[in-house]
Amino acid sequence: MSEGSSQGKPRRLRPVLGKDNGWWWERINAGELTIQRCKQCGTLRHPPRPMCWKCHSLEWDYIVSSGKGKIYSYVVIHRPQFPGYEYPLVVAVIDLEEGTRIVSNVVGVDPKEVRSGMPVVVSIEQVDDELKLPLFRPAA
After folding, report:
1. Closest Cα partner for 72 from 48, 45, 106, 107?
2. Which CATH class is domain 66-140?
3. Neighbours of 2 (CB within 10 A)
4. 111 preceded by cis ω (within 30°)?
5. CB of 44 within 8 A of CB of 36?
6. Cα–Cα distance for residue pair 88/133, rounded to 1 Å
7. What are the boundaries of each domain within the chain?
């Protein structure tokens, strides 16, 4: 795969897709933020993985997240700068209201205004010609 898109703009790094997470990226492409759930004990987990950390079951399904959460922790990256990203880049751990966490970017806000505890909502966005990502924006 080439580094640039059809318009010549550099692309973000691509997620590594495999049998354990390919379904999750398919749901993102369909516009849904999902959370894997153990069928045996009901434990939610993210990122997706084959076995429940709590009961060791290999059986799972998923729920669709509301996409609402709060910033648990974050960092603002200024350097190094990689092609395909806009800087400063806010990378955050989001506490989803369902009770699990996800690492993502926070967009649509001045990085100086980002705070732990800030309410956010997911926005699944097309970041280049091939990739959609679950990004988070401040909740209205």
Report:
1. 106
2. mainly beta
3. 8
4. no
5. yes
6. 18
7. 17-64, 66-140
